[in-house]
Structure formats: structure tokens, C-alpha cells
Amino acid sequence: MMRHTITADDEVIVNASHVRGLSAYGPGWGLMWNGREVFIARAETADDGSIFEIVDFEAIAASHALRTEYGEPSNDDTVAADFTDIAHDYLDEWLRVHPMMFMTAPYTTALRPYGIHRTRQGKATANGYQIATEYRIGAIGATARIVMDIMAQTHRSATPIMITITGPCEPGTPPATTYTATVPHHTPPAAIAALIATAAGLPPHIAHAYPRRDSTGFPQEPAYIEVDVAHVRGLSAYGPGWTLMWDGTGAVITRAGNGDEGALLEIISYEDMCQLRDNRAEQGDPHDDRTIAADLTDILCDHHHTWADALAYTDTSPAGTVAIS
Predict the structure, then answer these.
(1) Is residue 322 included in any domain, yes or no?
(2) SS3 of the chain
(3) Is residue 6 part of a domain?
(4) Residue 79 — φ and ψ, nearest 5°?
(5) Are residues 292 and 178 in the same domain?
(6) Most exposed: 40, 226, 312, 324, by fewest CB within 10 Å?
(7) Is residue 96 part of a domain?
(8) Domain range spanning residue 266?
(9) pLDDT tens for residues 162-200?
């Protein structure tokens, strides 16, 4: 799938509908930028640096809480304005580090099953030869930091990987370092993830073998053609005029007209989803979000292969993820 080139001149605008939709999706989702559109996707979509993550659900929630704490207006519009203001700074940093993020992605994948998640993209260190990535340890409110040499992945550097865990702290005070370690540069991600989890007091995952340098120690999730319950909640939050579509790799919420050229498969509009829910309620059938998501998965599976076959015989290539506009 083609994506537009992302540059420092891009104007990334977060609006209230983006914030409202992300809030409905919940933990594990984020706002992304593909060079043309802002859209919602799973946070792991941005792990390898192939796409720019603006903000995740947890940061949106923290922004609301911080504004409330300081007695400032806290609504979708004010939070959207905040992230529009800082998106350019985030984008500048991402442009510097995204070519290196393919090295950190296996570590991010290995940490996720423990509930340890990446906070935005990594940062280049002062010397420019290392990348530092921070992770939230949700169970204890601490932060883990992994610093690795940019040549480590190709075995052209023997610089060890540095691990630091800092405990939670009060606002305005520096966090206290609770754990530090250095490990050989060839240590598999699964082993580093287990080390961090153990140091944080979480149950370690036991992997008996690491067949590859980038082994995460966890089976990779298969790709499913599926509508998630979060998509249903998100479409409900967006309201009239929005539609759930499939871009070939996942479901996205976009304006109805964005599917006209055939590059996107329309699953259901907001209006039709409301009608589906009403019909189920009238018949006395379950009509909760999970049931609706299952119905939409069935609809998607019925039409996906026909759409994919037709797309293969046209000159239309999906020009990036055409999403929230």
C-alpha cells in the first residue's frame, strides 16, 4: 500500500472529532498521520517507524486530567488544540528517529504482553548514535527506558543495551531511578522484556529458546479480517456522516465519499449501524457493541474477497489509509 511522503512542512491538525473518536476506542489505540490524513489505528502500527504516531489514548486521557487538575477547560476542542500545537515538535523528532525504529520494534512487541507500552516514538540521544525509547509500566506507574546503539541490530556495534526503570513521582519532581542494568547488544528482545518485567515485579514470561536475533519470545498474532468492538464505539462517537471502511489491512473511520474511487471497501455508515442496532432491539435480539461488531465482521467477510479481486484488476491503488478528514 502506498503512503504519502511525510515531511517537516506537513500541517498536522487534530480536531475534536479525532479526540472524541480516540476516547471511544480506548487503550491501545492512537492517532496516526500518513502524510495526508489523521486516522485511528492500533498503537503497534507505528512501532517500526513506518508511520507517525501523534498521540495515543493514554496521553489524551492524561491531558484531560492535567487540564482539570489546573482548573483549565478540559473538553475535546481544547485537548485537540493542545495536540495540534505540539504535533509539529513531535513530527520533527519522529523524522530524526523513524529510520532507527525498526531496531526497537521487536523490543516493543516483546514488552506489550506484559502491559508495558511504548510512549510515542523514541528519541535520538545527544551524540546522535543511539536511540532511547521509553515505556509505560502500567501496573506500577513506572517508566522503563531502553537505550541502544543504532548499529546494534547489524552486529557492527558491541555497545551494550542500557536499561533503566524509574519509579512514579509527584508532578514537578524528578523521578527516582529504581533499577539500572546493561546487557550485551545481542541479547534477544524476549530476554530483555522478561528482565524488565521481573525488575518491575511482574510475572516473567518463560521462553525456552530464542531462534532469531529479533525473537520476541511470543507468538505473533495472525492477521484477522475483523471489525473490533472499538470500531463500533468509535463510529458511534463520530456520528452522522461518518462511515466504517476497510483499507486492505484494517478498518478505518472516514467520510462516506472517501470510498467512491474503490480503494476502500465500505462496511457500514453511522446511520445504517444505528438502524441495525434498532432492528435487533425491535426483534428482542442482543444489540450491544460486541454483537454489532460480530455482525459487521460477517458483512466484511462476505464482501472482502470480491472487493480485493476487483481492486487487483483496476488501476486504482489504495493511496495510503484514507481516513478521518
Answers:
(1) no
(2) CECCCCCCCCCCCCCHHHHHHHHHHCCCEEEEECCCCEEEEEHHHHCCCCCEEEEEHHHHHHHHHHHHHCCCCCCHHHHHHHHHHHHHHHHHHHHHHHHHHHHHHHHHHHHHHHCEEECCCCEECCCCCEEEEEEEECCCCEEEEEEEECCHHHCCCCCCEEEEEECCCCCCCCCCEEEEEEECCCCCHHHHHHHHHHHCCCCCCCCCCCCCCCCCCCCCCCCCCCCCHHHHHHHHHHCCCEEEEECCCCEEEEEHHHHCCCCCEEEEEHHHHHHHHHHHHHCCCCCCHHHHHHHHHHHHHHHHHHHHHHHHCCCCCCECCCCCC
(3) no
(4) -70, -40
(5) no
(6) 312
(7) yes
(8) 229-312
(9) 999 987 766 566 666 778 888 888 788 888 888 888 888
> Looking at the 3D structure of the chain, how many domains does it have?
2
pTM, to two decimals: 0.63
Q: Which of these three, 150, 182, 199, is where a domain ends?
A: 199
- Grid coordinates of 325: 478528514
Q: Which of 150, 184, 199 is the last residue of a domain?
A: 199
Q: Is residue 325 part of a domain?
A: no
pLDDT tens string 26-52: 888 889 888 888 888 888 888 888 889
